[in-house]
Amino acid sequence: MRTELNLIGKPVSRHDAWAKAKGDQLFSDDWSMPGMLFGKVLRSKYPAAVLKRIDTKKAEELPGVKAVLTAKDVPVNEDVTKFGQMRDVGGGFEGLYRVLASGRIRSKSEAIALVAAESPETAEEALKLIEVDYEVLEGVFDPREALKEGAYSVTGDGCGNVIMRTKICDGNIEEAFKKCDVIVENDYETTPNEHAYLETEGGMGWIDENGVITLRVGTQVLEHYRTIAKVLGLPHNKVRNIGVPVGGGFGGKEDITVEMYIALLVQKTGRPVKMVWSREESIESHSKRHPEYLHYKTGATKDGKILAQEVSIVMDGGSYTYLTPWVQMYSTFAAPGCYKIPNVSVKSVSAFTNNTFNSANRGFGAPQVNFASERQMDEIAARLNLDPVELRRRNVLHDGDRLPSGHVPRGHIALKELLDKVNKELNRSSKPDRLPDGRKVGRALALGHMVYGRLNFLHDSSRVSIRLELDGSVTLRAGVPDLGGGQASVLAQIVAEELGLEIEDVHPYIMDTHLTPLCGTTTATRQLYMSGNAALKAAVQMKEKILEKASALSGCPVNMLALKNRKVYSVIEPETISIPFVDVIKHLSNDGEVLENIAQFNAPFTEVPDLNDIKGELNPDITYTCHGVELAVDEQTGKIELLRVIAAADAGRVINRNSCEGQLEGGCVYHAWWPTMEDLKQENGITMANSFSTYLIPTAADVPDIESILIESGGGLGPYGAKGIGEPADNSIAPAVVNAIRDAIGVGFNKMTVTPEKILNAVLSFKNKE
Amino acid sequence: MSVHDITLTVNGRKVRLTVKSNELLLNVLRDRLLLTGAKYGCGIGECGACTVLHGRECVLSCFIPAVCADGWEITTAEGLSKDGKLSVVQQAYVDKAAIQCGFCTPGMVIASTALLYENPEPDEAEIKDYFRGNYCRCTGYAAMIEAVKVAAMRMKERGCDDEEL
Ligand code: FES
Ligand code: FES
Question: Which residues contact residue A671 at a Cβ distance below 8 angstroms, ignoring those fewer than 6 apart?
Answer without folding.
Answer: A362, A363, A367, A730, A731, A733, A734
